[in-house]
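Could someone model adenosine monophosphate with this protein?
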Amino acid sequence: MCGIVGVSGAADAARLVFMGLYALQHRGQESVGISAVNDDGYARLSRRGGLAAEAFSDEDLDTLPGSLSLGHTRYSTAGGAGLVNSQPIVVSYREGDLGLVHNGNITNAGLLRTELVEEGALFQGTIDSEVIVHLIARSRCPSVEEQITEALSRLTGAFSVIITVGQTLYAARDPWGYRPLCLGRFPDGGWMAASESCALDLVGATFVRDIEPGEMIRIRGHELTSLKSIDSNAPRQHCIFELVYFTRPDSRVWGQSVDRARRAFGRQLAREQPAEADIVFSVPDSSNSAALGYAEESGIPYELGLIRNHYVGRTFIHPTQQGRDFRVRIKYNAVREVLEGQRVVVVDDSLVRGTTSMGLIRLIREAGAAEVHFRISSPPVRYPCFYGIDMPTREELIGARLTVEEIRQRLNVDSLGYLSLEGMVDAVSESGPFCHACFSGEYVAPLLDLEHGLEVPTTC
Ligand code: AMP
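Reply:
Sure, complex below.
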């Protein structure tokens, strides 16, 4: 769960990257970093804790000149926070300064790290991304392209990466295609690669296409080349949870508008899990589009029953449970005038621990709702994610511990209905095939560290 951006061939690239990170803030709120390569090929780096807008002033960006720049906004699992694990990683390399940003979770990073450490490699932090830099540096291949390709070919799991070497930018996705990464163009010919297309919109870059799974592109100034794919017969595994929850609805991911995908989930949910009710509303903002879809399909009027305080970050994006509970209470309020005496359908995008929902249902009942029908626009989350979405352990997942009826009782709702796995996948079938391991337990890319009993390194 991170956001990455790279810009090549545009004046003041670090400012454009900064704006891109602003748009990708929802993908990580713990730290933010920007590197920029000046015309001399020397990379400057600045990494700070917190949000992009607070971390970087105009003056800070003045210290990052150049037309080539990388940026990263980070969300980490507990224990991995701290600037030593933030990105970009910048190192001095035999081919020039090397910068790297990574989104995803490499499932054999522990094994590779052990091997590298035995060979004498020194690591600064605990993130899996550092392994990539070492593999590139140790490659004996003749060209930089081949060194990067060889390094990436040794990885299993999820990685969308943007790398700068000297004045050249490379962007690549893992062969399964777990995490998104798209390409945009500025009117004057420069390029931008970003986790989501909403970052391109903000800086006036036009969406060109997604970078393909297993593809690596090279950009020198304005010139773009698509290079040999990372060698693999891996089946496509686009993360469906990106569509369910994580990406912004104004983004396009895998040829699909995220808003349209969520509306399709909501419509399918209304067909599978109808309810006798007077109004439908969402848990703002991540389920707005799904609730609209539910209302469209069911014909039940859409209302604004819950109001979100926008000055509080995402509930989940906080490393401690105590912080999470506190944030639920201050994040939402119910609109009594809308709810009083009404039979309500509440649509949420996912049920993970159940903490948010329990607090919300209490609020909704206290505001006078006559009946509460809770609908979830995805199946029960039953398994942890090892490919870069931060999910709690199995024991903490309410869907892994309790049956749907037990969850209904625990939440104190009149009815509870989830979208089926088949219904969810069919609703967005043109963007698949998908990874739905968090719902199905089907892990396709090998989980090598786990199989070897190694602790899964800090993800990004
Ligand atoms: P809870 O069931 O209380 O654990 O939280 C579920 C809510 O958190 C959902 O409504 C989602 O909007 C949001 N959510 C789901 N998965 C994640 C995640 N991996 N990271 C952050 N927020 C999430």
